[in-house]
Amino acid sequence: MPATLDAVLTRTRDTDATIRKLVYTTLDPNTQQGGVLGITHPRALTVAQRELIVRHGLGDRELAVKTAAGDLVGVWSEVICDKTVTKNEKEPENPNSAVDDVVDFLKMFDLGEDTIAEDALLSVFTTQRDLFNRLKFEGLSHLMGFARLLNPFQKHSGHR
Predict the structure, then answer these.
(1) E strand segments, 22-133
(2) Would you place residue 63 in the very low, low, confident or very high pLDDT band (cuts 50, 70, 90)?
(3) CA gap 136, 84 in Å, rounded
(4) CB contact at 8 A, 50 and 42
(5) Measured between alpha carbons, how far apart are the two ends of the chain, in Å?
(6) How buried is residue 151: exposed, middle or buried, by Cβ count under 10 Å (0-12/13-18/19+)?
(7) Lowest mean pLDDT among 10-24, 29-43, 97-111, 116-130
(8) Residues near 64 by Cβ (< 8 Å), separated by ≥ 6?
(9) For residue 132, how many other CB atoms are within 10 A of its CB?
(10) Cβ atoms 77, 105 nearer than 8 A
(11) How far apart are CA 134 and CA 129, in angstroms?
């Protein structure tokens, strides 16, 4: 199956915008199959594959392709940050859960690789407004705490 996925991913550079758009809409519904990771689940993809999808999709010249890629990245965010609450559970009361969700999402990328993680996160903030609205930094100390959470990624990627 990986050879098939690689063949599909090469179509992200097709000359026909309809084909490029179809790549992203085809990858979207295959993120989970009956509770099991599908081959296009973001955790099943390699970092390089995720970054290729984001780079080619969000950087496409056609708005329809960018939109389809943004929708896919939004689905990734939902899947990675899935905190589904069953009817017998209470809603989590952790005020930092949105920060944790953002950190979990960013862990999918090499933060030293161009602006791919930034582009993906901005796309999520555009398509998943609720995550952006839940993200609260209560003063400089809270913001610095978020920066410390990202510090291990910065060391790994060479950012200081």
Answers:
(1) 32-33, 36-37
(2) very high
(3) 21
(4) yes
(5) 39
(6) exposed
(7) 29-43
(8) 17, 21
(9) 15
(10) yes
(11) 9
């901005």: which residue's tokens?
122
CA distance 124 to 102: 10
Tell me the per-residue pLDDT of 96-149, one tens digit each, with 9 for 90 and over: 578 788 888 888 998 776 789 889 989 998 888 888 787 776 666 656 666 665
| pLDDT at residue 79, rounded to an integer | 84
For residue 115, give the amino acid letter: T
Q: Which amino acid is at 140?
A: L
Q: Whole-number mean pLDDT of the chain?
A: 78
Question: Is beta strand 32-33 parallel, antiparallel or unpaired with respect to 36-37?
Answer: antiparallel
